[in-house]
């Protein structure tokens, strides 16, 4: 085999990992990679306008496609700009690999131009990261990086590539297999624990399935549906788990947590056996910890042992892949004598239906002002619930979660853990790249869309017909909501001026539409969906609408504010 | 006081690993009371001994989070098993006139060693477990400690006796 440069090896590795798209931004130390890229037409590079967007786009791409998303940036500011995107992918367990250029090894530590210790900076927010110091290590490191990103509990991996390593030559060895003695994720759930869990579930009177992003990442939706239906167990999920169970299913209770449905939150307060699958009991879910699921025995299935008994002590921990564990539960169940579970569960399901009827997800209609919830409802209706939805963070995110009934996994991309304003639009770009021809909508606020608005030119340039629905209330809505409820309406730094989004769209070469009255909402959405170009829809909505229900921070889940 | 745990961590002997381990402790608000690191017989592996305080749930999290680091090969909570702990202290004590003899007596009783002598001081090497070292130092304090440095706790599991 002949000698290859680091840059050649880099691209050969990406080819072997079946990478088709890279989101990136060039710079001094990665010039050789960008030069080599011209000889690889099979790998498409999407030139973003800010490196943060490259990381979010890779994240959206990964979620929609079930592949590893890839970003490539230069050293120094190029690298630091990706940190928010990396941290978000880390919190949400999304497999991305971020390649950063680095100054030549001889200059590392010298405060060279555009030098930053990105491996040090990202250590706490990557699953793992590398500084490649020798070109002979390059091929192996890249393969290991992809392996770590996608296996076990997935997550972001960063590989830092000094310029001299990219330029050095070696005869590369491309590894076929990866063996890391210190890294062996447990996929197969312990059958004894699974059996114990099933016995507990079978004896339950008021069981609840509480599911999270693990259902999506492990492609366990079918197994979940089968299990829930077989035993007639009602299902609620976290924000990250939406789409893991069909939003129009009779056993579906809606999202739980701070802005969860009344019925989902009440079910947690009443359940006697809580089955948590691929979720991690974060503070937005549990509210006041000491009063979370007070009557319940808890079963927790998760691939990450450190998620188990971190916040809530569980009775039956099961470490393993969600799909594997649910598969085992379904198989074990088949061996049990048949029972009329619909009849056995009738009382519990009736109670849930009553809660649902008593306080459904709702809002007050207005003839004169557009209600933001109405916009999301209409988006759902007019896309027949089939669109890929990304969100920004804040009220827009919660209304999207509440009023778009997600049918299938990988349909919603949202920065759940880190809560990144500015995530949704670049993520939508990544989703559209992975799913050409699909309808992709970023449900945004007027605040968060301004955090990565520069990518408008990217979607125009690459002909990505992403739709942006801005719920424009001239406020940083969620913060304003807290000020209204808990700070006596002192609106400190939350009223916000936005540019004319229609003109802005026009300036970028996209299409801008505006609706200011309720009757204009539907025609605007229809027109946007029919336009084969990027479209901004500027919905001027009720400025002081609140997301309800709401469990105030630190309160127990049944202590919801309802209106 | 919260219980002390002595945790042994085998890690890849590569740059940045120590920073991953200590970063995990600081980032998650875990306590480090002492920390010892050195290469093992296998130069590719280092062994870290960490003494930490925290209740059962915190200790469980510490161990799980350590396991999660890709470069961590093995983690053992030695507090759960029979083990031996040792720490070494070098201490310079004021020793003049009458107290010279007294300091030597303490040195003798606790089987410490004198490693340096000057007209007005002794420098002692004290080896022992946490409790013994505390006891010696509290006695030496009466004579005036001028300087002191500790290794932190080292610990090893006792082999099964049968």
**CATH homology superfamily name of the largest domain in chain B:** ACT domain
- Number of strand segments of chain A: 20
Radius of gyration of chain B: 19 Å
Largest chain interface and its two residue counts?
Answer: A-B, 19 and 20 residues
Query: Can you tell me the overall shape of chain A?
Result: globular
Overall mean pLDDT of chain A stands at 97
Write up what this structure looks like.
The complex is a heterodimer of chains A (563) and B (162). With 563 residues, chain A is an alpha/beta fold. Chain A is 37% helix and 16% strand. Chain A starts with a strand and ends in a 23-residue tail after the last strand. With 162 residues, chain B is an alpha+beta fold. Chain B has two domains: 4-81, ACT domain (Alpha-Beta Plaits), CATH 3.30.70.260; 84-157, Alpha-Beta Plaits (2-Layer Sandwich). Helices cover 30% and strands 41% of the residues of chain B. In chain B, the strands form two sheets. In chain B, strands 5, 6, 7, 8 and 9 form a five-stranded antiparallel β-sheet that branches. The two termini of chain B are 35 Å apart.
Question: Which features would summarize this protein structure in a list?
Answer:
heterodimer; A: 563 residues; alpha/beta; Rossmann fold; globular; B: 162 residues; alpha+beta; Alpha-Beta Plaits; elongated
Compact description:
Chain A is 37% helix and 16% strand. With 563 residues, chain A is an alpha/beta fold. Chain A has 3 domains: 167 residues, Thiamin diphosphate (ThDP)-binding fold, Pyr/PP domains (Rossmann fold), CATH 3.40.50; 168 residues, 3-Layer(aba) Sandwich (Rossmann fold); 169 residues, 3-Layer(aba) Sandwich (Rossmann fold).
Set out the fold topology.
The complex is a heterodimer of chains A (563) and B (162).
Chain A: E1 4-5, H1 6-16, E2 21-24, H2 31-37, E3 44-47, H3 51-65, E4 69-73, H4 77-80, H5 83-91, E5 96-102, H6 118-122, E6 128-131, H7 138-150, E7 157-162, H8 163-167, E8 169-170, H9 191-202, E9 207-211, H10 213-217, H11 221-231, E10 235-237, E11 252-255, H12 262-270, E12 273-277, H13 283-286, E13 297-302, E14 316-319, H14 322-334, H15 341-358, H16 372-382, E15 388-391, H17 395-403, E16 412-413, H18 424-434, E17 440-445, H19 456-461, E18 467-472, H20 477-486, H21 501-508, E19 511-515, H22 518-530, E20 535-540
Parallel strand pairs in A: 2-3, 2-4, 4-5, 5-7, 6-7, 9-10, 9-12, 10-11, 12-13, 13-14, 15-16, 15-17, 17-18, 18-20, 19-20
Antiparallel strand pairs in A: 1-8
Helix pairs in contact in A: 1-2, 1-7, 3-5, 3-18, 9-14, 11-14, 12-15, 16-17, 16-22
Chain B: E1 4-12, H1 17-27, E2 34-39, E3 45-53, H2 56-68, E4 72-77, E5 83-94, H3 98-109, E6 113-118, E7 121-128, H4 130-141, E8 145-150, E9 154-157
Antiparallel strand pairs in B: 1-3, 1-4, 2-3, 5-7, 5-8, 5-9, 6-7
């Amino acid at each position: 085999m002949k000698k290859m440069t680091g840059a050649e090896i880099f691209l050969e590795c990406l080819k072997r990992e079946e990478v088709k798209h890279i989101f990136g931004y060039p710079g001094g130390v990665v010039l050789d990679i960008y030069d080599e890229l011209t000889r690889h037409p099979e790998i498409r590079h999407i030139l973003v306008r800010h490196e943060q967007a490259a990381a979010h786009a890779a994240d959206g791409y990964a979620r929609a496609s079930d592949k590893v998303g890839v970003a490539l940036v230069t050293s120094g500011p190029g690298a630091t700009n990706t940190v928010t995107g990396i941290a978000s992918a880390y919190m949400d367990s999304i497999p991305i690999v971020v390649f950063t250029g680095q100054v030549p090894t001889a200059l590392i530590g010298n405060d060279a131009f555009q030098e930053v210790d990105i491996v040090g900076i990202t250590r706490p927010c990557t699953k793992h990261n590398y500084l490649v110091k020798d070109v002979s290590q390059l091929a192996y490191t890249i393969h290991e990086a992809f392996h770590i990103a996608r296996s076990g509990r997935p997550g972001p991996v960063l590989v830092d590539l000094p310029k001299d390593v990219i330029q050095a030559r070696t005869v590369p060895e491309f590894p076929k297999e990866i063996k890391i003695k210190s890294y062996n994720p447990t996929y197969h759930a312990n059958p004894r624990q699974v059996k114990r869990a099933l016995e507990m579930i079978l004896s339950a009177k008021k069981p609840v399935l509480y599911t999270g992003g693990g259902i999506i990442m492990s492609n366990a939706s079918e197994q979940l549906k089968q299990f829930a239906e077989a035993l007639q167990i009602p299902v609620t999920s976290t924000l990250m788990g939406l789409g893991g169970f069909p939003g129009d299913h009779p056993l579906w209770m809606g999202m739980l947590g701070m802005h969860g449905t009344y019925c989902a939150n009440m079910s947690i307060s009443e359940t006697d056996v809580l089955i948590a699958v691929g979720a991690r009991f974060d503070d937005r879910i549990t509210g006041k910890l000491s009063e979370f699921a007070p009557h319940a025995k808890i079963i927790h299935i998760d691939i990450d042992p450190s998620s188990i008994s971190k916040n809530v002590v569980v009775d039956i921990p099961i470490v393993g892949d969600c799909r594997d564990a649910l598969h085992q539960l379904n198989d074990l169940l088949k061996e049990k004598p048949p029972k009329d579970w619909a009849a056995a569960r009738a009382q519990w399901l009736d109670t849930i239906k009553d809660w649902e009827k008593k306080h459904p997800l709702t809002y007050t209609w207005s003839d004169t002002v557009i209600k933001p919830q109405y916009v999301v409802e209409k988006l759902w209706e007019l896309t027949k619930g089939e669109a890929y939805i990304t969100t920004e963070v804040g009220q827009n995110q919660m209304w999207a979660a509440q009023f778009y009934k997600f049918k299938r996994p990988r349909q919603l991309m949202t920065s759940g853990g880190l809560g990144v304003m500015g995530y949704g639009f670049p993520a939508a770009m990544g989703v559209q790249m992975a799913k050409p021809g699909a309808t992709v909508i970023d449900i945004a606020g007027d605040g968060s869309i301004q955090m990565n608005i520069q990518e408008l030119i990217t979607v125009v340039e690459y002909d990505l017909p992403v739709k942006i629905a801005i719920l424009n209330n001239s406020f940083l809505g969620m913060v304003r909501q807290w000020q209204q409820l808990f700070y006596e309406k002192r609106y400190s730094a939350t009223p916000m001026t936005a540019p004319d989004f229609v003109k802005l769209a026009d300036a970028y070469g996209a299409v801008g539409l505006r609706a200011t009255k309720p009757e204009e909402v539907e025609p605007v959405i229809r027109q946007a969906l029919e336009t084969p170009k990027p479209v901004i829809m500027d919905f001027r909505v009720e400025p002081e609408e609140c997301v309800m229900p709401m469990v105030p921070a630190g309160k127990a889940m049944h202590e919801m504010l309802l209106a | 006081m919260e219980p002390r745990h002595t945790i042994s961590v085998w890690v890849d002997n590569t740059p940045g690993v120590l920073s991953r381990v200590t970063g995990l402790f600081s980032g998650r608000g875990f306590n480090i009371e002492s920390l010892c690191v050195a290469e093992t017989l296998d130069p590719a592996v280092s062994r870290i001994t960490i003494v930490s305080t925290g209740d059962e749930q915190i200790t469980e999290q510490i161990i799980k989070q350590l396991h999660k680091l890709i470069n961590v090969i093995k983690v053992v909570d030695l507090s759960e098993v029979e083990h031996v702990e040792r720490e070494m202290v070098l201490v310079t004590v004021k020793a003049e006139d009458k107290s010279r003899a007294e300091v030597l007596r303490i040195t003798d009783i606790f089987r410490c060693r004198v490693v340096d002598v000057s007209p007005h001081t002794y420098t002692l090497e004290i080896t022992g477990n946490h409790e013994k070292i505390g006891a010696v130092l509290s006695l030496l304090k009466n004579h005036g400690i001028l300087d002191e440095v500790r290794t932190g706790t080292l610990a090893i599991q006792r082999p099964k006796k049968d």
